[in-house]
Amino acid sequence: MPVTHHVVAPPEEATKSQVLQLVVDNLTDISAIGITPSNPLYNLYQYGIGFEVHLYLEAMKANGELRVELLIATDLDDPQTVTGFALYLPVQGDPDACTLAYIAVDQDYRRQGIARALVQQMTARYPHAELACAVSKVACFEALGFRVIGLRGPQVLMNTRDHASDGQVAMLDVAPIYRTLEVRQIHTYLLQQHGKRAMVDAEKQRDRHLDQLQRKTEAFVLERLDPAALQPGTRVHLV
157 lies in a domain? Predict the structure, then answer.
């Protein structure tokens, strides 16, 4: 049985570093756009999403509107080694609800029930849980008690119930991250390394990939949520 820990204050630096490394190592799986290492923009998004998670962890210091909780899994024989994490946001106005923002498991520790343990501990605290994932991940989350209720951008929207919570979730505005000096410096470096044409092609490749994901998700959700098959009162959320 995986060892999990519930964290409501900023984790120690060693733990935080390992969580952020899991973000960097699993970027394709946890990012909404599913960008792959073959795209020259990959390193830019590694920084951007890593910094986003960093800001969420830093927000745990305050008692403001942005509420953040963290679950970490550690190695049974080496408690200092983080094997997986789940970062989620409690819903304001609904004590039973939360939104799972990020979850990742170290590649060397997969198929040991770590993701299941993290999600089960989260839903034990917040039984009305929501997340957005790629079509390819739907079956995994269905096995953990989630159901498809709609779509959010290029991702499938899933919930432990047949509807979203009526409460509000405070989330980071990530747009300013991509306007920071650090991101501009990374982009300049990538431009020098790959050339302008390659970077323009990388952006087009990203946009085509997003369009494909969007179409695939829309088709999947429409197939799964055939209005004729819906239970009375079911709401489809196209966010």
Answer: no
In this structure, the number of other CB atoms found within 10 A of the CB of residue 226 comes to 8
Tokens standing for 192? 């020098």
Amino acid letter, 5:
H
Can you give the CATH number for the domain in which 86 is found?
Answer: 3.40.630.30
Helix, strand, coil percent content, the chain, rounded in steps of 5: 45, 20, 35
**Calpha distance 152→221 (Å, rounded):** 10
Q: What angle do CA 44, 136, 218 make, to 5 degrees?
A: 90
Whether residue 155 lies inside any domain: the answer is no
**From CA 213, how far away is CA 64, in angstroms rounded?**
35
Structural tokens at position 33: 């756009």
What's the burial of 152, exposed, middle or buried (CB within 10 Å: 0-12/13-18/19+)? middle
Distances (CA, A) of 196 to 32, 42, 200, 207: 25, 16, 6, 17
Residue 225 pLDDT = 85
Along the chain (239 residues), what's the average pLDDT of each consecutive run of 10 residues?
87 95 95 93 95 94 85 94 97 96 96 95 97 96 96 94 93 93 96 96 96 94 70 41
> Structural domain tally of the chain?
1
- Structural domain boundaries enclosing 189: 3-131+167-226
pTM: 0.90
Q: Which amino acid is at 143?
A: A
Structure tokens at 103: 């979850």
Instruction: Indicate whether 110 belongs to any domain.
Output: yes
18 neighbors 10 (Cβ within 8 angstroms): no
